[in-house]
Batch of 3 targets.
Target 1
Amino acid sequence: MIPRSCIPCEKIDPDVYDWYLRHAAKVAESKEKSADIIFIGDSITHFWNDGENISYGKEVWDEFFGDFCTLNLGFGFDRTQNMLWRLQHGEGDNQKPALIVLNAGTNQFSITENYSGDTPAEAFEGVKKLIQTIRSRWPEAELIVMAVFPRLPENPTQKNIDQLNGYIKNFLQENADPKIKFIDISQQLRKPDGSFNADLYHDRSCHPNADGYRIWARALMPEIHRVFAHE
């Protein structure tokens, strides 16, 4: 049976913004610009720079990516199946990015009235489907796959995240693709003793603040410099 994490669908849970309005805006934006870098993900990507009056690190985004044309396809509370649906319905159309950054998977473990949560194996299948979809759609682009970021350790989700990251890492190692880079900044988002560093999170549990986003941006820059060195 195909896990639901792989079956494209529209929004599942409400958030602080209008999902359908944002989708329409991103379809229009895809038609209006030619992005150098496309970011695909959930609220962690969404709220980095353009979150409908919610932004936890816009100054960091502008500092590191201001010289590039970017397309932020992050949507709050999205799961892998929502990202797959959006990519099937106009987001990213007409684009030929040099680089794509994928950060997906944490919401597979968010249990709500509308969603009972996935196992790490089911979550991995959704992330794998996204990787395959992106590579098929943009075969010339470089792809950075981010390990899912740490969350508040009291949350049992962290064990699932660790297992999911292991599945993703092993899959990419076993199916080596020179155009795919796996980046894991989990340790940088923790304290030196390995414990969760709430000071790097806006809500002290899940979403990075400017300091957390700066760590992510710095981790991306070597790959960005490499990809755009010949442009």
Note: The helical segments are 19-32, 43-49, 58-65, 80-88, 120-137, 157-174, 210-227.
Target 2
Amino acid sequence: MERRLVLPYESIEEIKAVNAGDHVLISGTLYVGRDQVHKRLSIMIEENEALPFIFKGNGIYYMGPSPKMPGYALGAAGPTTSQRMDPYSPLLMKHGLLVMVGKGPRKSEVVQAVKKYSGIYLQAFGGCGALYSERIKSAEVVAFEDLGPEALLRLEVEDFPTICVLDSQGASPYF
């Protein structure tokens, strides 16, 4: 089934309606962060610091963009391996970040956290960095600029194609 998900979402019911195997087109705001961003966000949570964005209602894409090309908000924007974020994902989910986009399998701790907090894990398609770049309407650094291309970014996306590989009930064709 094809679904549309607008971020930030307004109700957890929108997330619970997404089933494993659904094709999900994301529009709206999508944050980007890899392992160093996740590590810093986790430290900020542990130290009760203000976070650079509100987790509730939003999603994060595991991606490191290539340099910007003329006429595009970013260069190639394909997914990176999700397992590098696994040590941090359960804590971020506990604090409201329920939509994750990346590629590859997740560790059992993340699968359990997805079920516990009613999140979803959406798979982006490896090798489609140019396609994803076309779906990104704008990009800006939000925090951790010192990380260069791995800084925390805010994207505005339109019909960003993914497939749900882990739904809020823990159903998955892979895990």
Note: Residues 11 and 57 are 8 Å apart (CA to CA).
Target 3
Amino acid sequence: MNKNPYDVLGVARDASDTDIKKAYHKLVMKYHPDKNPGDKSAEEKFKEVNNAFDILKDPQKRAAYDRFGDAAFAGGNGASAGAGFGGGNPFGGGFGFNMGGAGMEDILREAMRGFGFDGFGGATRDASGPRAGRDLLDEITIDLKDAFYGKSHTVKFSSNVACEKCHGFGTADGKAAPTCTTCGGSGFVHTRQGFFAVETPCPECHGLGRKIDKKCSDCDGTGTVHKHRTLDVKIPAGIADGARLRLAGQGEAGANGGPAGDFYLDVRVRPDKRFERRGNDLYQRIDVPFTTLALGGEIEVETIDEKQLMVKVPAGTQVGEKLRVRGHGMPTGRTNSFGDMYIDVAIRIPTKLSDKQKKALAEFADARSDKKGWF
């Protein structure tokens, strides 16, 4: 029995196509064999994720699963228990007919429609038409300072690209092959077995929907070739942790002259030792001398771009207060616009004091003993 594709991708049954695609990209990146060499469990999860996405990305397959569950894609030709009809069951032995007042023809027509058939006639799909290629996904982790300045990143990978010689059509002359007359461009042929319609790949075009008489010598008729590729990605200044960059048309090659998919790069920003980022603002904790807090003064702070600033500390500043330094946070994405930097005021209590210092503090404490909570 197939695993529930919604559970595999971790999405709700009413999830949008965008949510399903995001979940797929995240999981396929996690379990990709290149990132888990020799891990059989990761390899199985990778297959499950791809199988689940194959169902949910296709509106017809998704509709079929929503109607019939696992039975929609189960194998086997045994008749359903209790069905009361002879002949094979194309939905698998576990599928039971529940008439519910509807005729057998109505039920089968509804089932066939879920698989792309219009009743008992020809397929509604057109395998010979252009089909977009798959999207690709990669991930990079950068420092906060890289996120501040922005940087260029080179991605190296391998994928199928459109064959230059035949322009992705797989033909020797580089033109679209004629529609297969046997299947009418659907890529499948249909036969009846009693009440049931059986779909098999077209023996003439092998499921392509087009009949290629003379194949391209470079790609052997597939329309694609596998190549090592390099992409230079510009990571913009101020990019946030978890942002996703899209390079349109840089994914897998399409089929039958269709457009290529897109390439996505997920950007992670590792935590910084000095600065904490909150939106476009930066926070850093700085120890300020007690005398400066009490009497007021200035302290020297360093910004993320290594500038030295003198920041005014008002007299009577309390530990835990935050001093705001405008325009020294992260780039906002607008020209010459930056967030702010905040100094989280802290204090370090000295552990070793000279006799003179101890005496001065004792005199201070005696002088302010009537002011509860002042020191």
Note: The longest strand covers residues 151-162.
